[in-house]
Design brief:
By secondary structure, this protein is of the alpha/beta class. The chain contains 6 helices and 9 strands.
Length: about 240
């Protein structure tokens, strides 16, 4: 966890869970796994267990200690809705987010089926934003499941964007983040895919954020799209009871 983050669309990270399992092509070059596995076997290191799934109850209260309001990416090193995280622990995370209402919490998952299964058992205050990762057209259905979650802000992370998102429905989606992959073996991003998403967002009044072109390093290709930096953020709307 860090009370500052280099991720352009957030300000801080909070990791009450670390570790995960790959579920789709966007996971192939996972930065979190690469980082965590560097420390596997190092006694006493937070990632001594590498990228194996681990819950950290002692970290639950961290956001309550941060008095200055900030946007917080929840589980940048995991997926809160991983199948092996007990529903009771997920509920504890949500309880903290409710209590720490000075912050905005951004929860991102590749497992929207589980979000939907638990949605009626969880609180959805306006400071909890729920998002899904969609890397190519095979996974645009994740947005359909997200639409059924009563979050105040629903967002899509199209990063790494690995193809055009044909068939993506932006109804009831508030924010779309797009970006290219970075690091060794990064897969290319096509400018046309990004322009199409940007134009769709403009037409549908969805906030659009372009994070990076990617490359050998995250900042290798810069962030401008057709000479402009896109840093739009969503407006919060009222939640709807499940």
């Amino acid at each position: 966890m860090a009370d500052r983050s280099a991720i352009e669309w957030t300000e801080a990270t909070w990791n009450p869970v670390t570790g995960c399992d790959q579920v789709s092509p966007g996971c192939a070059h996972c930065y979190a796994k690469t980082f965590a596995e560097r420390w596997r076997g190092v006694p006493g290191h937070p990632y001594e267990q590498g990228f194996d799934l681990r819950m950290w109850p002692q970290r639950l209260g961290q956001p309550l200690k941060w008095k200055r309001p900030r946007t917080i990416f929840v589980n940048s090193m995991s997926d809160l809705f991983h199948e092996r995280i007990p529903a009771s622990f997920i509920a504890e995370v949500f309880d903290v987010m409710v209590e720490a209402d000075q912050h905005v919490f951004q929860v991102l998952t590749k497992r929207p089926h589980r979000v939907l299964e638990l949605a009626s058992e969880l609180p959805w205050p306006s400071n909890v934003w729920m998002g899904v990762s969609i890397e190519n057209r095979r996974f645009v259905h994740r947005a359909d499941l997200l639409r059924e979650v009563p979050a105040a802000v629903r967002f899509i992370s199209a990063e790494p964007l690995l193809g055009p998102l044909e068939g993506l429905d932006l109804e009831a989606i508030d924010w779309l983040i797009a970006g290219g992959e970075s690091g060794p073996g990064h897969r290319r991003i096509d400018e046309g895919w990004v322009i199409e998403l940007r134009d769709r967002c403009l037409d549908d009044e969805v906030a659009f954020f372009f994070k990076q072109w990617g490359g050998a390093r995250p900042k290798s290709g810069g962030r401008e799209l057709q000479g402009q930096t896109w840093d739009q953020v969503p407006r919060v709307r009222e939640t709807i009871a499940v």
